[in-house]
Design goal:
The structure is a homodimer. Chain A is mainly alpha-helical. Helices cover about 75% and strands about 0% of the residues of chain A. Chain A is globular. The N and C termini of chain A lie far apart (about 75 Å). Chains A and B meet through helix 1, helix 6, helix 7, helix 8 and helix 9 of A and helix 1, helix 6, helix 7, helix 8 and helix 9 of B. The first copy, chain A, binds a DNA duplex through helix 1 and helix 3.
DNA sequence: CTTTGTATTAACAATTTTGTTAAACATTGT
DNA sequence: ACAATGTTTAACAAAATTGTTAATACAAAG
C-alpha cells in the first residue's frame, strides 16, 4: 500500500527513462525520437516506458517543461544583477548567458524547433513568464536611459540589445556543426574558439553601447 | 516514344509534388514530413509521388540540394562586391545577407537541423564549397588588414566578423516565432520590426569595425 | 499469511507510413 | 491502326511505431 515502497528502485527506473528521453528528444526532436530507442537506452522494456508515462506525448512534456523553464530563467537572470553600473551589468550578463548556453548547447535549437512546430501549446507558458519579462525590460530600459543621460552609454532600445546578445551567443552553438567543417583550423580547438567567441560577443555589444563622443 | 510527350502536364505534376514537398520539409523537417501529406497538398495520389521520386529520401534530397546551394551562395556572394571600400562592402553585404534571409526565413533552420541530424552526408557538399570559401576569406582578410593599416577600420579576424553577421541576421528569423509573443507591441508589425532590426544589425557591426582613435 | 497495490514481462493489437504492383489509360511515332 | 512508352489509379504489402493487456512477481501492511 505504500506508494514509496521501493522508492530508490522506482526513481532509478523512472529516472533512467527520463534521462534517456531527454537525450533522445534533444538530439532528434519529437518526430525523430523513438520510444523504443528511449527504452533501449534506458535499459527497460518499452512497455515500462508506457507504464510510467502512458504516452510519448506525456513523456515529451516532462522534458519540455524542465528545459523551457531553465531556458527562460537563464535569459532573465543574466541581467538581473545587483549594484553594478548598468554597463558592467550588461557586460557580465552577456558572459553569464554565453556560459549557460555553452553548458546546454542543444537547448536553444530544441526550444525553437518545438515552438515552431506547436506554437499553440505554449500560450500558458508564455503567460507565466510574460510579467517577469515585462518588469525586467522596464527596469533595464530605465537604467539604460538614465545612464545615457549621464553620458555613460549610448541610448538604445533594451529589446534590441537583448535580441543582439541572444543572437550572438546562441547562434554560435546552434550553427557550430554547420560552420565547424568550413572554418578549417579556426574552430578546430573547440575550447579555444569558444573563449575567443565569448570575448568577441562581449566586445561587439560593448562597442555598440559605448557612448559616442 | 517521346519522353516529353506531355511535357507541360508532366512538369506540372512533378513540379506540384516538388513545391508541396518543399513546403512540407521546410516546415516539418524530414521526420515530421509525410509523403501522403505532400501528395495530398500537391493534389496527386501518393503512388504518383513514389512513381516520380521512388522514395521519400530521394524526394528530400532534391529539396535539400537546391536549398543548400542557395544558402551557401547567399552567404558568399554578399561579400564579393566590386570596387567599393572594404567598409562599404561589408555594410552592403550585411544588408544583402539580411534581405536574402528575409526572403527565405525557414531555410537556415532547415539547413542547420538537417546538418545536425545527418552530418556525414554533407562531406561532398562541403568539399565543393571549401575552396570558394577559402579564397573569399583570404581576400576579405587581406583587404581588412590593408584598410586597418591605413586606419580606416579596426583590425579583426574576417571569420569572426562573418560569424557575427550571420548570427545577427539569421537568429532574427530563426527565433522570431519564439520572441514575437514575448515582445508585446515591439514586434507586432513585422515589416517595421524587420526594418529596424536590419538597421540595428548594420549599426552593430559598423561600430565593431570602426577604427578606434 | 493473506491482501493490496505497484512493478515487470511478453505477447499482441492498432495505426500509421512507406513502398509496390498490376492493370487501365493516354499519347505519339510509324 | 497499333506498338511502345510513359502516366495514373486502386488495391495491396511490409515495416515501423505506438500503445494495450493479461498474467505474474514482488513488497509491504494489516
Amino acid at each position: 500500500m505504500d506508494k514509496n515502497t521501493d522508492n530508490i528502485e522506482k526513481q532509478n527506473k523512472e529516472q533512467l527513462i527520463l534521462t534517456a528521453a531527454e537525450h533522445e528528444f534533444l538530439t532528434k526532436g519529437y518526430d525523430g525520437a523513438r520510444t523504443t530507442s528511449i527504452a533501449k537506452t534506458a535499459g527497460v522494456t518499452h512497455a515500462m516506458l508506457h507504464y510510467y508515462f502512458r504516452t510519448k506525448e506525456q513523456l515529451f512534456e516532462r522534458i519540455v517543461d524542465s528545459k523551457f523553464s531553465l531556458m527562460a530563467q537563464s535569459m532573465l537572470t543574466a541581467f538581473g544583477n545587483p549594484n553594478q553600473s548598468i554597463v558592467e551589468r550588461i557586460r557580465g550578463g552577456i558572459g553569464l548567458h554565453f556560459d549557460f548556453v555553452a553548458q546546454n548547447p542543444q537547448m536553444p535549437l530544441f526550444v525553437i524547433n518545438e515552438i515552431i512546430s506547436r506554437p499553440e501549446r505554449y500560450d500558458i507558458l508564455y503567460n507565466r513568464v510574460q510579467s517577469v519579462i515585462d518588469s525586467i525590460y522596464a527596469n533595464l530600459q530605465r537604467d539604460i536611459d538614465l545612464a545615457a543621460e549621464r553620458g555613460e552609454m549610448e541610448r538604445i532600445d533594451a529589446r534590441m540589445l537583448f535580441i543582439s546578445i541572444m543572437s550572438l551567443n546562441i547562434f554560435t552553438f546552434v550553427a557550430y556543426p554547420f560552420m565547424e567543417p568550413l572554418m578549417g583550423d579556426f574552430m578546430a580547438n573547440r575550447k579555444v574558439f569558444l573563449e575567443a567567441r565569448r570575448a568577441e560577443n562581449i566586445e561587439t555589444i560593448m562597442r555598440r553601447i559605448k557612448a559616442q563622443q
